Amino acid sequence: MPVSFSDVTTAVSLAWKLYHDCWMVAYEAPEGFRLLVTELSSAQSILTRLREQTNDASYLENAGEQRQEHLRIEAARMKQTLKALEKLVSKFYKLGRTSSAKEFWTTRIRWVFHQGDIEMFQKRIMAHNCMLSLAMTAVGNVTLLDIQKRLDVALAQQPSNTGIDPHSETNTPLEDENQFSTTDLAKLTRTQSVGTVETDFTQFSFTSQGGSSISTEISAQDHGGRSVQGAEAVPDLPDINTVIGDAHKVLKKCNEEVDGEPTLETKSTPVFDPPHPDCVIDTVTAQRFETAARLQRTRSNISLEEWLRNATWWLVKSRTIFSLHMEGATFESPNIRENSIASVVLGHEQEMSLELGLENLKKASWIVYGVVLKNEEMVSALTDANLKSLLSLISALRTDFSKAYKYLNQIQSDSNPIHYPEAPRNDDALQGDGGRPLSPIRIWEPLCVLERILEGTLKGRRPASENLRWIAVEKKDAGSVGEHVLYRSFVNAEIGGRTVRNVTIGAPYMLLLHVEDGQSELKVTISSQRGFINISRNFTNEDLENARKLLGQLRVLPRGRLGRLEPLSLHSPEVEVDVEFLLLEDLEGFIKIPQRFFDTVRLREKKFDSENLIYHTIVDESALVNALNTNSRLPPSKFCELRLYEKCEQIEDGWMRSRRMVLNSSPKEDPPWCRSSFLPVGGVYVNQDSRDDRRVLIKFSDCNHQKKILKPDHTHRWSRIYDQQIPNRCVSLVFKTSEDSRTFKEVILNLKAQALWKAYGNSRNLNSDVQPLSILYRSQTSIYAVSSRNSEDGLPKGLQLNRRLDDWQTSTIFFVPKIVDFRIEFDQNKPRIRFQKVFSTDYISDHVEKYDDIDEKKVLADFKECKKKIESQDLIFSTFGDAQSLLRNLTSTWTLKDWRTVKKAKYKDPGSRRFLKGGKVVGQKFEAQISVWEKGDRKRIVVRWDVHSGVHCAVPHSGKDSTTALLQDLDVTHGQLIDLGSMSAVSSQNTETVIAKKGIVLNVQFLSCREKEKFAEAAGLKCP
């Protein structure tokens, strides 16, 4: 027949109630009372474990009816003991700990009179805990019976220090009107001394859930020389501590012998230090709060998380009020400024008064100690996150109550007190200063119209947890992982359109400024207590200007009570939001953080109209590195914003280009920082880490290389110059992803312009529209790109060559003008194109030819301007086809059909008898280069001599045998340079084409007949 365990549930609730009530007054209590609190905590844990196991059918089946009966009887004994204790200690909690420890325990409680009874109850509960723990294990029946009898004998001998017989019916006075009877306790003692466990000494075996069985026996002669051969043996009087010690040894041995059996020490509820008396509110205030909470939230299933968030809300709100009042003051010397919050409360006396701040703190205390910790189910269900919140609240309450009372007492004793007296700790009336009634009690913030609408749409469901992540005791704990709250306060707000917005009082919304790791912008968020409102967006420079303007208007108003502040518009795309700050200083604090950040990072904004943002991202880490030793670096900065700007002036040749790299800190850095560095276009060395491809090193030269110049008058000047070959700056960047690092590398190594054509040699992962090409540039495999400019024929063009040096990649960029001179040669059977004059960019500093060097001033030179640098450039190709491909894209689709060197080439006018070269009479030998170009149905012949430039002419129908070709009736242009757009010869003095007379005769002598035939084929001529 199954045994009823109805007493277990009652005992659990009663044990928790007694533990809570005793714990609430246990601060600086006598040791005996604190031991009682400890035993009550253990009793509650053991009873909770028993309740769980008695609800487990398999456990009861393995235990058997005898063991079940023993557990039931012991639980009933525990309940009787707890009920007797309840009569004694009920008045302890009702009296409340509002006095000093000495006064409370000696005068009000009269500890000396009740000490013996408290210690007796402590030992009885300890004995019950011991027997219940044994009964829930695999200990044999003989052992249980022996320990039970010894405990009964020991408990029956416990005297009462009050001088009252525990078996009598006399009453014990407690502070006059408090009466306690020990009748029930005496009956309980007599019942336990008889013993109720069966005296059958047949060994009882308990089968564990793992299938093992334990039979534990005690030796025939135990403590005191008592024999266990029969129940009638008369032992020496045992000491209860000795018996409990023996019981613990049995428990330990049982745990060691059962392999895999769970330990007998149950997982107890968290143990908290008793609250300080300052943190305990009086019963009248607690009743007010309880009534208000019941009326404002009719729903009974309020979760533990909701209660903890509510307590945190009021604690943070109380901190906000006190911190604003105490700004500029210390506990030692409360220096209240004339125009401080305490003296100028801008029309919000009730909303920001110190009375309200103290009441908010009491609300948090009532929720923690009067709701959460009073409820056994809530405490048993504490998760790690909830336990952290609860511990943070307990610690904060202790600190905040102490500071609040100390501050209020100092204000009262100040020579010019502000009339915010300390609220009475046992305040029975709802009166504030001067009989002024306090604001209506709000345990839950009232819902605005929009919140009620949102609550209806959720249909009883709770708001998303992320809407409530801002409610935390400490500002550093608010938000999700990676979010950092920089500012937090409470404001009034009108939210929504005209049909739903309403004016609020009491600052029911939390206003935050925060930043997220991996983001570069400040965010502003307004959130409600219950999470129905959570509106967030970026805080912009425009918002800052509006706030500054509002602050400036308020500062010029007369001192004194200014009425309600004007609202600050923080509209988002989804909803309109107008925020009203309660205090002028609160608005100042709100502005301070974004003002400092935006003033610092001004360099990240565009400086010139010709400057364009070409790359923008957030890097996980950035650090300055020694350019000569990349293993030496400064401490890194986390989550920095990276911007690359390119400045391009619209000039004819396209060479006036420079870049700027801006790194700035996250807004959470204190203080924020911003670095703007000159960056050349080309000449930057990039190293992508092979072990972590998110990590990139870049090296480049700034304009700070020292150059000492000797003048003709033997004086010296100093300049700071740019030297591409000697990088002196190095930066390490760690990107979020590998894709981000590759994109950055592409931007650094390439021109930011429209790419007409790209070719890669010996490269992997080629795009489908990229032509493979093998180019040797300075004996290195290179990558190049040709980009167009804004002209009809796409000229001039920039030519970029990328190359690899060990683990580093770099690029060289030069600009090929429309008018240029170049020649084609062979170098070790490889074609070479030599551009006689191309442009590149030289970067000039602001320290040029000065009388002193800036080393003495310990400052750096800044980039000032770009200057054109003219140089020659050689390109060596693997095959003639590679050269053709480059020239076709460089010359606006003119295709080089044939190129060769001839023995001599000369021309003459139709009416002249002499052949000319370059407009002059030529000698016997004049070697030249001749090439054929084709574009659509047009063809050009280009003849170039070493000393003078070439002749460009249309191709007629003419030919001659042997190695000599005579081309007649040609239209000729003559000059020293070539126009790549029209394939015409132009003068070096100006870009106008020089037109010769028509009908020119060109005489060319080739090296062989075979070469003449190839030339004729390419030019579309026929050899006779």
List the helices and strands and how they pair.
Blueprint: H1 6-24, H2 31-54, H3 57-95, H4 101-108, H5 111-135, H6 141-156, E1 171-174, E2 178-181, H7 183-194, E3 206-207, E4 213-214, H8 240-257, H9 283-296, H10 304-325, H11 354-372, H12 376-380, H13 384-413, H14 449-458, E5 483-495, E6 509-516, E7 523-528, E8 534-538, H15 541-555, E9 568-569, E10 577-580, H16 584-600, E11 611-625, E12 637-648, E13 657-664, E14 674-679, E15 685-688, E16 695-700, E17 705-710, E18 716-721, E19 729-734, H17 738-749, E20 755-760, E21 771-772, E22 775-777, E23 780-787, E24 797-805, E25 808-816, E26 819-820, E27 822-827, E28 830-845, E29 863-877, H18 880-890, E30 895-902, E31 904-908, E32 916-917, E33 920-921, E34 928-935, E35 938-945, E36 951-953, E37 964-970, E38 972-974, E39 977-979, E40 984-986, E41 1000-1005, H19 1009-1019
Parallel strand pairs: 20-21
Antiparallel strand pairs: 1-2, 3-4, 5-6, 5-10, 6-7, 7-8, 9-10, 11-12, 11-19, 12-13, 13-14, 15-16, 16-19, 17-18, 20-23, 22-23, 22-29, 23-24, 24-25, 26-39, 27-28, 28-29, 30-34, 31-41, 32-33, 34-35, 35-36, 36-38, 37-41, 39-40
Task: Describe the protein's architecture and organization.
This protein has 1024 residues and is of the alpha+beta class. It is built from 19 helices and 41 strands. Strands 20, 21, 22, 23, 24, 25, 27, 28 and 29 form a nine-stranded mixed beta sheet that branches. Strand 15 (685-688) and strand 16 form a beta hairpin. Helix 3 runs antiparallel to helix 7. The longest helix has 39 residues, at 57-95. The relative contact order is 0.04.
